[in-house]
Amino acid sequence: MVKSSTNYFKLSNSLYIQVPPTTPDSSSEESPKSMTHSRQQWVQFLLLSTGVCLLWLIVFPQIATIPHVQAEIDFLEEKQIDPTAMFYSDLETIEDTVQEISDFHKAHPDALW
Predict the structure, then answer these.
(1) What is the pTM of this model?
(2) Are residues 79 and 72 in contact, defined by beta-carbon separation less than 8 angstroms?
(3) pLDDT by residue for the chain (113 residues), tens digit each?
């Protein structure tokens, strides 16, 4: 790589890249104010990460051991219901509900919408 007299670097016979000019103000040193702000952002990020880890690794497992919650979890596992699913259209009981809604709309076409 050969540096030319302008703000271009010659990489090969036909390939040049332009480099922005450097000024004394754009040095790599950060001002104390920006370093403090950057440090505050890191502290906030680390606190948030620690909070999320505490929730997932300590609080949520403890909640899952509460008898009422454990009964709900067992029910969902027994029925093979995925509680993270957005829609339960693959469940057997949904067919009855869909039929009831369809019958309702036939009997009351102007209701709801």
Answers:
(1) 0.42
(2) no
(3) 455 455 766 666 677 777 766 665 555 556 677 778 888 999 999 999 999 999 999 999 999 999 999 999 999 999 988 887 756 555 666 778 888 889 998 998 887 76
Matching residue, tokens 């509900």: 97
Who contacts 42 (Cβ-Cβ below 8 Å, separation ≥6)?
Answer: none
User: What DSSP string runs through 26-80?
Assistant: G-SPPPHHHHHHHHHHHHHHHHHHHHHHHIIIIIHHHHHTSHHHHHHHHHHHHTT
| Structural contact between residues 7 and 19, judged by C-beta atoms closer than 8 angstroms | yes
Calpha distance 63→66 (Å, rounded): 6
